[in-house]
Every structure is written in C-alpha cells, then in structure tokens.
Write a structure and sequence with these properties.
By secondary structure, the protein is an all-alpha fold. It has one domain: Up-down Bundle (Four Helix Bundle (Hemerythrin (Met), subunit A)). The protein contains seven helices and no strands.
Length: 197
C-alpha cells in the first residue's frame, strides 16, 4: 500500500507497522490450513480475508496518525508478497491454481528484486506504482475468490467462479507492470549515465 510523502526517518515500529506485521504472521496459518484441508478451507478464506484487509488499514492509519515510516514503506510490499505468494504456493500444491501462472509471477518478482538492487546502486529506486498496486489487488481478489469457491455445495461457488479469469488478469498485469517498472528505471538512469560521460 502506498504511503504518504515526508515519511518519518528511521525504522521505528508504529501502530500501522503492527497491522503490516500481522499480515506476515497470518501467512503460516493460511498455508497450513490450505494444505491440511487439501484446499477446501473456509477457515483459510476467513484468515486470508482478514489479513488482506490489514493492507487497507496500515497505510490509511499511517497517514491519519502522521506516523508514516521508512520501515512501513519497506515492509508493506514485502508483506503483500509474503501473503499472496505463500497462499498461491499452497493453492498450487493442492491443484487450485495453475503452475504456469505461478512460474510467471515468481520469475517477474525475482527479476524485479535483482533489478531493484542493480538500479539502486546507480541511484535509481524502483517504487511501487498505483497501477502495480492495482494488479496486486486483482491477485488478492483472485486468491480470495479461489478460496471462497471451494466446495460446489456452497451457493457462492458460482458467484466466485470467475477467479480463474481474475488470476490470469493479475498475472498479465503483474508482467506488464514489471516491464513498466524496468522501463521507467532505465529512463531515470539514462541521464545519470549521460552525466557520467
């Protein structure tokens, strides 16, 4: 979740950080619940939904209380990746999500992490954009719908049957935003390289 400008310096723990940390701590419980049930877990759905809601709480709380911190800015996207990534892996193991899509997302994330480190050495920081965040939300919705649609006996199974489309839309969006991040980083890097000459 994007944070407000002028963050407080240092890596201090704030109330907003607490909700971000809760999102990370929820991951092991969700993972085990999904694997233990073979994918059919209303409990995992409830815990995941609650954890996903903390993504709305932490950033807004930080802005309202004026407690935006460097720790929060660094930890928030990591918490998103841990929550979504761990749940997606569990759902893939149980056959709920297609492996090719997971491979694409993982390759994109690894590429961006490596790119972030390389560009940062050159003084260019890759930051999460609103568009990138929107596709994270799409993947969140796909995972939520996948968990909720488990069990054909449930009346909401048909309603949440769109989750495969949401998932592939999220995969495509993640790939496109990954390319956009790198393109923007190269654009910002070019003047630095020209100046160096």
């Amino acid at each position: 979740m994007s944070r407000a400008q002028n963050p407080t310096s240092g890596f201090r723990i704030t109330a907003a950080n607490f909700f971000t940390i809760l999102r990370i701590l929820a991951m092991p419980a969700i993972f085990l619940l999904v694997l233990k049930s073979g994918g059919a877990s209303n409990a995992a759905f409830a815990v995941f939904l609650a954890a996903a809601l903390t993504d709305l709480i932490d950033g807004n709380l930080a802005r309202l209380t004026g407690s935006v911190s460097e720790l929060g800015k660094s930890l928030d996207p990591v918490a998103d990746q841990i929550l979504i990534g761990g749940t997606v892996i569990a759902l893939t193991i149980t056959g709920r999500l297609p492996l090719p899509g997971i491979v694409i997302i993982a390759a994109r994330d690894i590429f961006l992490i490596a790119g972030y480190k390389l560009f940062k050495r050159r003084g260019v920081v890759i930051r999460v954009s609103k568009l990138g965040k929107s596709y994270t939300v799409v993947l969140l919705l796909a995972v939520i719908a996948s968990l909720a649609s488990i069990g054909a006996q449930h009346w909401y199974a048909a309603i949440f049957g769109i989750w495969p489309w949401l998932f592939w839309a999220g995969v495509a969006g993640s790939l496109l935003t990954g390319i956009a991040y790198i393109a923007k980083a190269f654009h910002e890097l070019k003047p630095k390289l020209d100046f160096g000459h």
